[in-house]
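Lab notebook, bench 4. Still working through the backlog of constructs that have no structural model yet. Next entry is a single chain of 522 residues. Request: give me the structure tokens for it.
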Amino acid sequence: MKNVIFLFCLLLGIIGHAQLDSLKISASEIFKDEKYKTTLLFAKEDTNGDIFTVRNYYSSISNPKGYYIEHYSKDLKLLKRTTFEVNRNEIKGVFLTADSVVLLQFQYNYKEKKYAFATLTSSKEDFNFSEKEIYALDRTRLNKYDHFGIRSEPEYSLHYQNNLGDFVESENGEFIALNLFTKTKEGDALLVITFNKNFEKIYEYEFENLIALTESPTKKLQLEYLNMVMDNEGTVYFLGRVFNNGDIILEKKNAPNYYFILFSADAVSKKQQLISIESNNIIRSLQLVNKVEKLAAVGLYIDPSTTGSFDNYLGYSGVVRFNIDPKSLATSTESFRPFSEEFMVEKYGKVKEKLKSFLSYRSTFMLENGDVIINAEEFEIYIADKNAGANRIYKDIISCRINSNGELVWAKNINKKQSAWSPHNIPFLSYASTTKNNVFYYFVNAASDLKILKNNEIEFKEGPKLYLLKMYETGAFRYDKILFPDIYNAHLGLRFGVLLNESDILVQAESNDKPMMVKLYF
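Model written out:
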């Protein structure tokens, strides 16, 4: 009875706040004539508010057919559409100039036996695209790539590893960089190529000789690539981890069995630098993040005293941050901060020494003041016997705020439970997040009836209703159920939501199994 009263009060609060919420929603028409399944890949908004999108369409996950290239007005009226078929090619991004739309395409030229990147450029008005090759390399330089048109997220790549690396754009839109995992006579290498906004190459470097802590003549050092970022001057930074003696385990005898290398490159030179770490804590994951002239590496760690012989890769004790000088690559500050008892009680209903789960990063970004937000999710894949299928499980959202001094301002656990055996259900799971005016927003699809846990926390269970969760600067939390008539019967594909600017989100939704576009903005 107590739980019923508690839930009733929560629902009254939701109704009371719904009128005050600043969320706005625009929706396109429903595309009733589309016969293939589709998902949203890329979207960009121009200065007039018009939106240009790339959606892939397929008969099955492993049988991609092509892409829809679309132009929408700011109120999501479809103005123009064209298609590209998948034929040893795939679109890797969309870019806008004042009067043009540019698609970046990766392709294999069978006659010339080479892989290449090309731009497909058209005016915004007529969608008459012309192709220009901007970079090519012989097929022997790459491991064979034959997954054209298949999404690269782990949910879709159960039995292969995507070897194409990252594609990043500077915040001011002046530079684009890509990296590729290549093969050389000496072994594996990472190739970095940077272009200006007109896709004219500025520089390229191949990183193949890694810093070694000790001489290891009989074993080739293995680099675990982590991520890449870019500043507004066209300098790229990427982070890698090297395991001692080639043994890919995180710890030996309660001490780290690895070291991190930070790489940078610009039009003048390239360099690499060890990240100096004083602590003996085990860093489970680390990501670069930057903003203007600030650069940091942030992630999650575990206290080695809490690990057992069978959980080498499982568990997190808290957050870690290194502030890095962008010019010298030297580490200026180091901090390890444990999760609070309050966070553990919120998560488990009692105090525990560590978070026992496997987390997948969903977004990591730096605010103007240097604070960093880490958004992660408990994510697991269970593959059935004989590879007959896989169950993809999306559970709690973990969100942390780390200030510029490395202090953990707050950590929040949002209880959630979703799963999908069918790949077609993946887009509707997980969540989408954004921020505006120092309020952090999370969109989740869940059932109408929320579950009340033993510690009086709520749990969002799988369902079609849209909820807006809000985190304030203090860590205070609130949620609303969204009851907009334009999307009342639509199921939003939040897993693949795309940020159009610093706060607006575009998603593909489904209404009676037919797609439509929905914009969520404040």
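Notes after review: The first strand starts at residue 24 and ends at 27. Residues 2-18 form the longest helix (17 residues). Flag for follow-up if needed.
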